[in-house]
Amino acid sequence: MNKKRKILFQSTFILNKFSMISMIFIMLLIPLFREQIFIYRDTFSRIEIAILLGLLLIFLFHIFSLILVYTSILELNSSDFGKWTLLTFGIFSLLLFFAEKVMIDEIAHEYVAGWPVIGEWIILYLFFSIQLIYHLLVFFQLKNSSTKK
Fold first, then answer.
1. What are phi and psi of 70, to 5 degrees?
2. For residues 44 and 52, is the Cβ–Cβ distance under 8 A?
3. Is the dihedral of CA 120, 126, 129, 134 positive or negative?
4. Which of 59, 96, 117, 125 has its CA 20 to 30 A from that of 19?
5. pTM score
6. How many beta carbons lie within 10 A of that of residue 97, not counting itself?
7. Nearest to 60 by CA among 96, 88, 18, 100
8. Nearest-angstrom CA–CA distance, 104 and 85
9. Does residue 105 contact residue 32 with C-beta atoms inside 8 Å?
10. How far is 42 from 29, CA to CA, in rounded Å?
């Protein structure tokens, strides 16, 4: 394994752990502080800053993991169905990341307006669950790769 790939591997492994913790943290914070999250105002609250930092970690993890999976496919000249499936699932998970941010904003606006937001909560946590599955799949792939070396 060359030096750049090793750094990418280690960075992705570390980001995986921090982004999983961030995602669980965000999943807990959003319902607890729903009155003050992402409502239009000039400054962000501490909770919003913590959530935004967590979202940044999750986004960075997605970018690093997609690069790692793609380079492993290229390096091995592999037509391995599992790696291609993981890459496709990662791209889908990255798209859900943007949808999550939209759903969080939508819940905040509808909550302030007094509208029911049950459907939005279900969709948001479904998206979070799919992303957690992707995080776990990458974690186990990274763990298996590290034990083989």
1. -65, -45
2. yes
3. negative
4. 117
5. 0.84
6. 19
7. 18
8. 28
9. no
10. 21
Using alpha carbons, select from 131, 143, 116 the residue that is nearest to residue 10: 143
- For residue 42, with 0-12 CB atoms within 10 Å meaning exposed, 13-18 middle and 19 or more buried, which class applies? exposed
Q: How far apart are CA 147 and CA 103, in angstroms?
A: 38
Helix (H, G, I), strand (E, B) or coil at 1: coil
d(CA 86, CA 83): 5
Pair 9, 142: CB distance under 8 Å = yes
pLDDT tens-digit map of 1-59: 688 888 888 989 999 999 999 999 988 888 887 766 666 666 777 888 888 899 999 99
Torsion of CA 121, 98, 22, 39, to 10 degrees: -60
3-class DSSP state of 140: helix
Would you state the structure tokens that stand for residue 40, as one six-digit string? 């239009």
